[in-house]
Amino acid sequence: MKNSRTLRYFGGLLILVFASVAHAAPKSDLWPFWNSSDEANTSQISHTNWQTLLDTYLVQDGEYTLFQYRNVSDASRKKLQNYIDTLSKLDPRTYSKAEQYAYWVNLYNAATVEIILEDYPVKSITKLGGLFSFGPWDQDVVSIAGKKLTLNDIEHRILRPIWQDPRTHYVVNCASLGCPNLLPQALTSANTEVSLESAAKAFINSEKGVSLKGKKLQLSSIYDWFAVDFGQSEQEILRHIQKYRTGGQLTDWSGKIKYDYDWSLNERR
């Protein structure tokens, strides 16, 4: 009995160690293959099918947008898969950078929903991805231009290093309550700037983004995990936040900051 308890104890520790390593925030690491475009190409990529799914299954609940995973019909699931497949058959490098940005963000979000649906019901995306994985972010999800890509590739090797815009964190969604909301509108080259600004403002003025109560300041863990994207110091991060915050000055904050994140699934219960 004692040996059994010991094995369970060390087995649990091993899992925690692997989960901790897996959860270490990836660095922005450019994949040069994807860093090209054809700015002369004025054609647009259709995201109509993704918008239809958002209109059908995404609902507003307070400061959250929640996806109704349990209600997704077989026909809608097929439409989602066809949408992802259609995007995968394109070479985004042949489009303008503006079209590419919307392409990658929508693909990331659509692929994340598909990953959840593959294993639904699930309480958290962190439960997916294998025994020693903290989530499915290093799984191959799509093949484009002969290259297999993971969600981490899309976010950390393409979106972050190529565009170097901290607001990207506000529009890619990891199917969790603590994450910036899944956008109700599919991103397009025409609405990207408005969507980025709106998403930044919504997240920063939500309790899950920034919570200031008296002398206690709590920020989303994205400002800890990806601090380098928001500034070179704590004060620069706070200045970024203050740009979008509608109440309570933070730029002269000198107290301790607590970070938190809710990994519960972003579903309508």
UniProtKB/TrEMBL annotation:
UniProt signal peptide: 1-24
InterPro entries: DUF547 (IPR006869)
Keywords: Signal
Domain DUF547: 93-204
PANTHER family in the cross-refs: ELECTRON CARRIER/ PROTEIN DISULFIDE OXIDOREDUCTASE, ELECTRON CARRIER_ PROTEIN DISULFIDE OXIDOREDUCTASE
Protein name as catalogued: DUF547 domain-containing protein
